[in-house]
Amino acid sequence: MKVNRNVGLVLEGGGMRGVFTSGVLDAFMRNELWFHYVVAVSAGACNGMSYISHQIRRARLSNIDLLARYKYIGIRHLVTQGCIFDQKLLYDDFPNKLLPFDWDAYFSNPTEFEMVTTNCRTGQACYLSEKHDKQRSLDIVKASSSLPFVSKIVEVDGEPMLDGGIVDSIPLMRSIERGHAFNVVVCTRNRGYRTRERDRKMPHFIYKNYPRLRVALSHRCEVYNEQLEMIERMEDEEKIICIRPERPLEVDRMEKDVEKLERLYEEGFALGERFCRENFASI
User: pLDDT category, 238, cuts 50, 70, 90?
Assistant: First the structure.
């Protein structure tokens, strides 16, 4: 079933917490629930690609099954590739060999799909789409998922990019600006969560060539908490539906425990199924 064109789908990131989102999206695909517009950031962008290509359980296999087999998170990858994730495995071996991505389905899908990156030069969010060029698509999703401090900067269209979550962790306002009066938002934190991390001014030697990126990094905790407050307020006003974990997470951004990841995926799948049962007629 195609959702009303006035309804957008917004996918938060969160590193390995994104297995919750992959569960939700697998439930959507199982129930053939398709949105006309999707905007996603970081891990949400990775999961969103498999949703746009209609490959049910692909993200789950990547995030859980193949993590156990290939151990693609670790300091050794930071040393050898400049990223704490094995990017060669994730953005070359997986889509091209081990877990083939259906590019034909992805490119032919009329759904508008935007992925959020942070432009290191301007310190602002970019909302990028690609439905023709395979390599540019991979560059965008890699940039969207490249966490600051533990990932290399990725060039897209000649511009230096990092994780979109630096400036827009939950891109709900982007969807509203694109004309979607109502939105379904998939978050990867329970209601009431606020980060306790403190914002700190970035010293000049960190990203020394990108002063505006340093400014963005110095405010990201404040911005994220403001977004969480907005999400809860709009949810209470019935302007959005938010699908989120129902209890505080035991899964870390760099989680390697596949049993914890499996439980979070199953929770996402169950809540996605419940959403489909309860909201099919209303959206």
Answer: very high
- Facing residues of 241 across strands? 184
Rounded to whole angstroms, how far apart are CA atoms 88 and 199?
32
Given a contact cutoff of 8 angstroms between Cβ atoms, the answer to whether 101 and 95 are in contact is yes
- Overall pTM surpassing 0.70 (yes/no): yes
Beta bridge partners of 7: 182
> Which token pair is 129?
């789409």
Q: Write phi, then psi, for 119 (nearest 5 degrees).
A: -80, 115
For residues 108 and 70, give the distance between their C-alpha atoms in angstroms, rounded to a whole number. 31
Strand partners, 158: none
What's the pLDDT score for residue 252? 86
List pLDDT tens digits, range 90-108: 999 999 999 999 999 999 9
CA–CA distance from 150 to each of 136, 167, 191 (Å)?
A: 22, 17, 28
- Residue given tokens 């517009």 in the structure block: 37
Query: How far apart (Å, rounded) are the C-alpha atoms in residues 55 and 103?
Result: 11
Distance CA 240, CA 173 (A): 12
- For every residue of the chain, which 3-state class applies, written as one string? CECCCCEEEEECCCHHHHHHHHHHHHHHHHCCCECCEEEEECHHHHHHHHHHCCCCCHHHHHHHHHHHHHCCECHHHHHHHCCCECHHHHHHHHHHHHCCCCHHHHHHCCCEEEEEEEECCCCEEEEECCCCCHHHHHHHHHHHCCCCCCCCCEEECCEEEEEHHHCCCCCHHHHHHCCCCEEEEECCCCCCCCCCCCCCCCCCCCCCCCHHHHHHHCCHHHHHHHHHHHHHHHHHCCCEEEECCCCCCCCCCCCCCHHHHHHHHHHHHHHHHHHHHHHCCCC
* Residue (of 133, 136, 110, 126) closest to 52 by Cα position: 110
